[in-house]
Known about the structure:
By secondary structure, this protein is an alpha+beta fold.
Amino acid sequence: MMNLELDVQGFYRKSFFNHTQPSSKWMAVFLWLVIVLLVVASLTLGVQSASAAEKIPRLNGKPDFSGIWQTTSAADYDLEPHSARIDAPPGPGVVDGGEIPYKPEALAKRKQNFENRFKADPRLKGWTLGVPRGIYYPEPLQIFQRERDITIIHQFGHSIRTIHTNGTDHPRDPNDWWLGDSRAKWEGNTLVVDVKHFNEETWLDRSGNYHSDALHVVERWTLIDANTIEYKARISDEKVFTRPWDITVFLHRHREPNFQLVEDYRFTLDYDQYYPYPAERAPKAQPK
């Protein structure tokens, strides 16, 4: 072994310091060692991947998304790459390819939304955030799962969304909903959710990216380990965008002791001045 080590070191000295060609024997030894290291690394990664897959929680044989989740992404500030500004930290964006493919006339409205964002953003009124914005909004959400459906409760506004997993289709005569209508199927370990029948009252982020009532979202939920969800969404809207486009964010499980959602009904803030009723304005008790 000592001779091998010395010879290998000699190989390096001759090859790289003296700029001479190593012998074919030691070149073969060197390549063999590289191959062994690559095989060991590949096997190690494979074992780690298999171990992570085995630890994924399951319900009725399917991945179980139950729990409280939250993204660390800055997607809600702006889905596209952006520099720092007064109302947002800098961010790389989450749009595949970087830019949202707006139609020219729709881009003009998006710019108008951006200019008016401090007053026009629906979240400032406490309105339901919609899909997909509610997923990457920087507040937690809780998922309850059973065989026939999945329920998502958002801390913001306490909005509740149902994803039907029982094989039913979208209603034939639908309303236009804030959260759309969600119907899902399993593709292996990935939950694929088709969402449509939206109204046009929500934005996609606080920078003014928006949609119309023709919004169609296809979500892909995948547990990559027990505490991390990869969330992908393909967004299309024939009235606003020239083609479908995709986003990717990650959700992380809250594991703090006793962590729970806290009511965030900010649409009631305008009424706080009336509750509780000020004592000085309360009617005087009539003497008996």
